[in-house]
Amino acid sequence: MKYIKHFLIVSVLVIITTLGVSYLLDTLPLLPTQAASQAVTIDSMFSMHFRVISFLFAVIVVFLLYSLVVFRRRGGEEGEGDHFEGHTGLEIFWTIIPLAIVLYFAYIGAQSLDETVRVDPQALEVNVTAFQWSWSFDYPEYGVSSSELYLPKDRQVLLKLTSLDVIHSFWVPEFRVKQDALPGENFVRELRVTPTEIGEYKVRCAELCGGAHAYMNSPVIVVEPAAFETWLTEQQAGTDFGGDLAAQGQKLATDMGCISCHSVDGSVLVGPSWQGIYGTERTLTDGTVVTVDEAYLRNSILDPNSQVAQGFAPSMPAYQGLMSDEEIDALIAYIASLK
Ligand code: CUA
């Protein structure tokens, strides 16, 4: 009976601490903007976890600090503290309650998973191709391909993810959901997102995939459905270059991700800059000197590691089979146009 007072005080302190920590976790901007309906489901789980975490923190810290202060050894005290030899009631209590909480969380976890993968038959299909080190997005229903992921607001998008080389991972933090992109056409992975907030976001690669992994991000732009239609029309018109090879090459350089490693302004990224290189001489890692001409550039695209420029690592992926001859011609015309 003499412990009832302590127990009551500790209980009140635990409640106050729980509310305080829980308020703090709710108020701090721990999660980015909620830009998809899937984010709402996932965040409600987060906030439930925050409450449980707050309570566990309070139980441990309050009991610890209270005991340290109130039951400390005072001057003149020589004996040992009271001993307890088991307490069946307490043991049953602290087994049953956590078990119930864990089972409850398993249940709402399954429910949330079900909600985030819910299929909308009207979903917009986008094929997402990941490669070292960029992304490309194809809209098969519209014959459009882009280096930016444009999405209409309030319509579910079905992303079909693949990779041309190693394992990458598609992640837009504002959408919360994440999915790996695996190489091989038998391993297409699906991810469903329903954007709810207009804005510009960024898709990041969440799987370590080589030298420029940290720079493997592309814009994700959520717009009103009408603006999305306009963008599609513009893109459809934009694929006709009227025979301007360099202009076509410029779009390819963006779509194929070349410019994430090769600058066009002279700055050195993962690979040499393209500015003014056409027609110049270049020393390779084996000491030979070559002229940067059509043959050299073509070989560097198809089999880059056979002729590596001095001062650079042989890290460029080979584009053999990924680009047509015409596309390579266009890309070379673009590089040649950069003075
Ligand atoms: Cu792709 Cu990291």
Distance between the termini: 89 Å
User: Using only CA atoms, what is the Rg?
Assistant: 29 Å
Q: Cofactors and ligands present?
A: dinuclear copper ion
State the share of residues found in helices, binned by percent. Answer: 25-40%
Which runs of at least 5 residues are low in confidence (pLDDT < 50)?
none
User: How do the SSEs run, as a string of H and E?
Assistant: HHHEEEEEEEEEEHHEEHH
- The counted number of beta strands is 12
Helix-and-strand structural type: alpha+beta
Overall mean pLDDT stands at: 88
Give me the number of helical elements: 7
Main β-sheet, spatial strand arrangement: 3-2-1-5-8
Strand content: 15-25%
Q: Could you describe the largest sheet, including whether it forms a barrel?
A: 5 strands, mixed
**Overall geometry:** elongated
Task: Write structural notes for this entry.
By secondary structure, the protein is of the alpha+beta class. The chain is built from 7 helices and 12 strands. It has helices at residues 4-27, 37-70, 88-116, 225-238, 245-255, 294-302, 325-337; strands spanning 124-131, 134-139, 144-146, 149-152, 157-163, 168-171, 178-181, 189-193, 199-205, 218-223, 281-283, 289-291. The strands form 3 sheets. The protein has a 5-stranded mixed beta sheet. A 5-stranded mixed beta sheet has the order 4-10-9-6-7, covered by helices on one side. A two-stranded antiparallel ribbon has the order 11-12. Helix 1 packs antiparallel against helix 2 (37-70). The longest helix has 34 residues, at 37-70. The radius of gyration is 29 Å and the shape is elongated. Bound molecules: dinuclear copper ion (CUA). Dinuclear copper ion is lined by residues 130, 133, 168, 205, 207-209, 213, 216.
